[in-house]
Amino acid sequence: MKNKRSILIFSLATVFILAACNNTSTHQNHTQHSNGGEQENASAHQEHGKQGQAEHMNHQKHGQEEKITVDTQWSSMIQKADQAGEIRIVIKDKQGKPIPEFKINHEKKLHLIAVSEDLSYFDHLHPEWKGNGEFIVKTQFPIGGKYRLYADFIPQGGSQVIAKHDLDIQGETKNEPLEVEKTWTKAVDGKEITLQGGSNLKANRETQLTFSLKDERTKQPITNLQQYLGAVGHVVIISDDQEQYLHVHPLEEKAQGPDAKFATTFPSKGVYKIWGQFQHQGKVITVSYVVNVVE
Q1: How many CA atoms lie within 13 A of 98 on its CB side?
Q2: Which of 22, 107, 197, 230 is most buried, with most CB under 10 Å away?
Q3: Measured between alpha carbons, how far is residue 53 from residues 22, 252, 258 in Å?
């Protein structure tokens, strides 16, 4: 491949936006890519309400829906590892007109999740809104290989959309095997974090995941977690084949620790990686776990 910079423009990703759902139903968006007519199921945000508190889960398809076509155009100036460059996303309606406005969802109009093929690399980005349907973010990737990007957004008046896109980055590659956790306590950035609910998981059954945070040195519970993107924390879950994507919000958004509780439903059996993100003393902490889900 030539070393000069070139703009890679990829096929349109056609995403069906489902009609807005009430807090007690779940919906799954279907992302259909124009390259070869391939259709992908994008397991999206679940939001789930109970009386007296807002509960968030992954939106999955169910019930009545109104299909509104959205075309997502991706372009990238990043060709090789450690090369900083821009990724551009343009979102249009079925008439080819740019989407004029997007709903603010946890303080941002678009969340962009990037993972490597082996799920060893994870990044949660927030592209800058340029108007006229366009978002731009500058980033780079640490090693070569395949990466999958998930654009998570809500067009004004529509419902949750997850658009997927793949990048192939030049450079030395590596492949770290996914191994299901044997212990549920990890030390990250001076914090001792324990995940409860990561074992004995079953597909299509509501599950509660609880992250408990302590100071690694003093073992004292952390009770002053800061709001991160409008909540005590965020959880992203991706299957090992990268077909299932879940972005989960906490049951109690204004909690400050030491526990952060999330409810979700794994849509199918298999191995998944979970990333939990929290903020303490101005620093975002990311902890990950690999789990196995049975039927």
Answers
A1: 12
A2: 197
A3: 14, 7, 19
Percent of the chain with pLDDT over 90: 72
Cα–Cα distance for residue pair 16/96, rounded to 1 Å? 14
Q: How many CA atoms lie within 13 A of 59 on its CB side?
A: 24
| pLDDT surpasses 50 at 205 | yes
**Domain 70-169 matches domain 185-293 at the CATH topology level:** yes
Which sequence spans correspond to the domains of the chain? 70-169, 185-293
Q: How far apart are CA 175 and CA 185, in angstroms?
A: 24
Burial category of 40 from C-beta neighbours within 10 Å (exposed 0-12, middle 13-18, buried 19 and up): middle
Token representation of residue 19? 């009609």
The DSSP annotation for 225-274 comes to PBPBTTBS-EEEEEETTS--EEEE-BSSTT--SSEEEEEEE--SSEEEEE
CATH architecture of 185-293: Sandwich (2.60)
- For the stretch 81-127, pLDDT in tens is 999 999 999 999 888 999 999 999 999 999 999 999 999 999 999 99
In contact, 212 and 252? CB cutoff 8 Å = no
The DSSP code for 199 is S
Max Cα distance, the chain (Å)? 59
Give the pLDDT mean for 60-66. 39
In the block, tokens 């008439």 appear at: 95
- CA–CA dist 41, 56 (Å, integer): 20
Topology of domain 70-169, per CATH? Immunoglobulin-like (2.60.40)
Mean pLDDT of 63-84: 79
pTM: 0.78
Nearest CA-CA partner of 244 in 91, 54, 113: 113
